Amino acid sequence: MKALIIIDIQNDFCPGGTLAVPDGDKVVEVINSLCGRFDKVIATRDWHPQKHVSFGSTHQRTTGEIIKLPSGEEQMLWPDHCVQGSKGADFHKNLAIKNFNIILHKGMNPDLDSYSAFYENDGKTSTGLTYYLNGFKIKEVFLCGLATDYCVYFTALDSLKEGFTTNLILDCCRAVNLPEGSEKKALKEMKDSGIKILNSSEI
Ligand code: VGL
Ligand code: ZN
Question: What is the pTM of this model?
Fold first, then answer.
């Protein structure tokens, strides 16, 4: 059984949004056309409370700065984005949500970020996604969405760690590239760890 996992196709990550990923909206139509080929389709939403720990404004700091959290983990700071219930947190208007079996919200803990759809950034607080996939005997996952170098990247590595054969649909992803070169680095690390990188035409 195969699942498609669609990461964070939300207004704030699309052109005009507060954390816009260049050409973030260009992946929508292709992703819509792929959904029918999978046994399960999971979509995630970045879903932060106001004053979230990942917002620069929460710490009177600016985007791109890295701070150390009380837990000792490093946190990259972002503009306010994907605030629960806001327009920016909505899915892109053309994304066909009728195809989604479940919508998984992540990043809801005010004090802890969650890039991965499997685990929060402490690396141990589960979102429950592994249980869902195992419950339906999913063995292979295909990942797409935003952003290649953050949420897609961390989801891909955790997917592999959880034992799923993991594919990344490259033409259905876009990167923030902050800092410069982070897309390249993420792609190399994914490839080196055994994630298959392919294009939608190969599915
Ligand atoms: C993301 C930065 C902050 C992502 C989410 O979806 O890749 N990036 N929050
Ligand atoms: Zn976020």
Answer: 0.97
